[in-house]
Amino acid sequence: MPTSPEGFSERIDGLRHELVAQARRVQLLVEGAFNAFFARDEERATAVLAQDDEIDRIDVELERAAVALLRDATGQGAHLDQVQLRHVLTIVKVNNELERIADVGVAIAEAVPRLPASMPPPPPTLRVMTNSVVGIVRDVGMAVDRTDARLAKVVLQSEDAVAAFKAALLRNAEEQIASGKMAVDAAFIIHELATRCEDIADHSTNIAEQILYLATGTIMRHMQGHWVEIPPVRG
């Protein structure tokens, strides 16, 4: 006789709970990395690297637990329905994207000791951009927690705002260099951090796509500068 899937539902809920906690850890790491950068604080940057060790450990544990769940379900003849299977696969994919966001945060923290002492304070727009990115990571974590399609769509739209921030920062840096008010190395650092912000937003939108698919079955694709919804197949 096939095993009841009820016990597996509890295990899936447990995995989801751990994933939400992981999203919160990643948010705190990203926030800490940005704070270390703006304060040029090597101690804070070192603390970020320690946070990443914990995130890496949980990342491996979550993936192993998801694989074990599917292996046990197959071995015990449990008939997991389509929604349950989609949950497990989403957990694995989101877990991977969170780990990549943490890696970007680590790269930001690792750059702190290399910041030149002569570098002037970054433009305020850069701080606004990083605050926005922290908000995106927070929102996508909440979307994971609630399986919130509406909030996932908000995260998708935020990608364009991050790209606009980066474009404005680079235009300003070019003008500052041309007028002799900014050194090229300082402009390069601004460009590097803005690109890291863009990377975090990109991974966050990947998570948002997974949440939308989980919640509604809708597939999202970014085409010709805007998001397109591909409705679920009915049958």
Summary?
This protein has 6 helices and 2 strands; from the N terminus they run ααααααββ.
Architecture overview:
The protein has 235 residues and is mainly alpha-helical. The protein has one domain (6-230): Up-down Bundle (Methane Monooxygenase Hydroxylase, Chain G, domain 1), CATH 1.20.58. Helices cover 78% and strands 4% of the residues. It has six helices and two strands. A two-stranded antiparallel ribbon has the order 1-2. Strand 1 (219-223) and strand 2 form a beta hairpin. Helix 1 (6-39) packs antiparallel against helix 4 and helix 3 (82-111) runs antiparallel to helix 6 (184-216). The chain is elongated, with a radius of gyration of 20 Å. It starts with 5 loop residues before the first helix and ends in a 5-residue tail after the last strand. The model has no long low-confidence stretch (mean pLDDT 89).
What are the salient characteristics of this protein?
single chain; Methane Monooxygenase Hydroxylase, Chain G, domain 1; 235 residues; two-stranded antiparallel ribbon
What is the β-strand count?
Answer: 2
Number of helices: 6
CATH architecture: Up-down Bundle
* CATH homologous superfamily caption: Phosphate transport system protein phou homolog 2, domain 2
Structural class: mainly alpha
Helix and strand sequence: HHHHHHEE
The structural domain count equals 1
Name the overall outline. Answer: elongated
Largest sheet: 2 strands, antiparallel
Q: Into which percent range does the helicity of residues fall? A: over 70%
Query: At the third CATH level, what is the topology name?
Result: Methane Monooxygenase Hydroxylase, Chain G, domain 1
- Indicate the radius of gyration in whole angstroms: 20 Å
